[in-house]
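Support request, please re-run this one:
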Amino acid sequence: MVAESGVSLRERTRRAVQAEVAEVAMRLFVEQGYDATTIDQIAAAAGMSKRSVFRYFATKEDVVCGKYELVGEQLAAELRKRPLDEPLWESLRRIFDGLLPYVDDANNRAFAVSIERIVQVTPALRARYLEKVDHMEALCEQVVRDRLAELGRPSADGDPRPRAVVGAAFSCLLAAQSAAVAEWNRRSFADLLDEAMASMSPAPL
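Re-run finished. Output below.
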């Protein structure tokens, strides 16, 4: 995804520690189950105190879903960089490219799908993830509205089309993720996402 230009050293260090703790935690979730894994166990495995873990993550759900705050910013930044003359649906598909390697990497795919399965079957995690997706959609919606303004077709705040198109693209992403859990050993996430998005053809804005 996009480089962290303009991010302070302190923030980069914080994000690196968060990523390390999250990686340790998710491996515990896969090995022994989400509900069975405690913050105390995560802290011990990460070599820090429970209090330190809570400095980086407000809840256990955020250990899994907290990264999507940054992912949303990255997706919006990637969308802002897409050519203005590119069809919006194609631009939305292309910004998801940065999400594909994590799942489609042969060495990581089983682990990534295991985490996706945990999110799908754990109500608290699923709710938190969908909350993050809603935030990501809002960030991308604003970019679409800015893009339309640059094209000389400003969109009124009450115009539902930008959010509808962005929401449709993210719905395709979620559908591909769900399919990946069932199809992980047969079809790539990229193929599943392409198929989901090809099934829809929103009218140009």
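The CA atoms of residues 138 and 163 lie 7 Å apart. The mean pLDDT is 90.
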